Amino acid sequence: MDSPMNPIYRKRLWIHRVGITLSFIAMAIGLFFLMWILFTLIVKGFGAVSMSMFTETTPAPGSEGGGLMNPIIGSLLMVGLSTLISTPIGILAGIYLSEYGDRSWFAQVTRFVTDIMLSAPSIVIGLFIYAIYVANVRHFSGWAGTFAISLIAVPVIVRTTDNMLKLVPNSLLEAAFALGAPRWKVATFVRLRAVKAGVMTGALLALARISGETAPLLFTALNNQFFSSDMNAPMANLPVVIYQFAMSPYENWRSLAWAGALLVTFTVLGLNILSRTVFNQKIKS
User: Alpha carbon of 222 to those of 58, 109, 139, 177, 205: distances in Å?
Assistant: First the structure.
C-alpha cells in the first residue's frame, strides 16, 4: 500500500488533483456560456411569444405584427414526413448490420458510409439533394427538404439500432434458436423487442438533430411567405425563417426570430430530455 510520504504517491496525487481541477474549470466554463446563451434566448424570446405567433403568417417587409404559423406548420410537415421515412429505413438497416455486419462485405461498406454521413456537414447533404432533385425538377419544394433532412436522420438511427442490438445477451438468442425460430424472427421479435426503448431513443435523437437544421433547407425547401401545405412547392420552415429574420433590419422580424429560436431550442431540449429519461428508465427496467 502506498504511503502518503511516498514521493511517487504524492506526485500521482497532485496529478490527480490538477486533472480534477482542470476538468471542473472546463465544465464551469462550458456551463457558464450555455447558461448565458439560454438566458439571452429566454429573455429575448419570451417577449415575442404570443397567441398571434401561432395564428398569423410571417409579416411582409416593413409591416407590423405577424407570426410564425406557416413556418411552424411547414417544419412539422417536413420533420414528421422525414421521421416516417427515416425511422423504418434506419431500423431495418441497423438490423441488417447487426445480423450480417461481421460476415458481409456489403455490410462493412454500409457501416463505413454511415459513419461518413454522420460526420458530413449538413450543407453538403443539402447541395446533394439540390443537384439530384431540385435542379432536375427546377423548383424548390417541401419534398426536397424532407429528403435532405431524412438523409441526416437515417445514419443516426442506423448506428443507434446497430449498437443497441449488439447489447442483447447471446444466451437469449441461443434460447430462441434452440426453439427453432428462424433468423428473421429472432432479429425482429427477440433482439429488436429487447432493445425497443433504445431504438426509440435513437429515433428521438435523430428527430432532435433534424429539427434545427438550416443549411440543407436553404437549398431544398427554401421559404414561403404565405401559408402552404403543398409539399411540391417552396415551403416555409422555422430554421430558414429564423436565419432570414435575424439578419433583417425590421424590429418585429428580429423579435419573431428570437421567438422561433426559443421554440426550436425548447423542442430539441424536450426531445433530448425525453430520450434520456423516459426511455433510459425503460432500458434499465
Answer: 14, 33, 10, 51, 24
Roughly what angle, to the nearest 10 degrees, separates helices 196-211 and 69-100? 140
Amino acid (1-letter code) at residue 55: T
CA 221 to chain centre: 18
Taking the C-alpha atoms of residue 36 and residue 78, their distance in angstroms, rounded to an integer, is 31
66: left (phi over 0), alpha (psi -120 to 50) or beta: left
Is residue 248 classed as helix, strand or coil in its secondary structure?
A: coil
If we measure between CA atoms, which residue out of 211, 223, 204 comes closest to residue 278? 204
How far apart, in Å, do the first and last CA atoms of the chain sit?
40
Task: Write down the residue that cell numbers 438490423 correspond to.
Answer: 95
Length of the chain: 285
* pLDDT digit string, tens, across residues 9-33: 888 889 999 999 999 999 999 999 9
Spatial distance between the Cα atoms of 244 and 192, rounded to a whole number of angstroms = 43
Angular region, 255: left φ>0, alpha ψ -120 to 50, beta rest: alpha
**What confidence tens digit (pLDDT) does each residue in 89-107 have?**
999 999 999 887 777 888 8
Task: Give 161-180 pLDDT, tens digit per residue.
Answer: 999 898 888 888 888 888 88
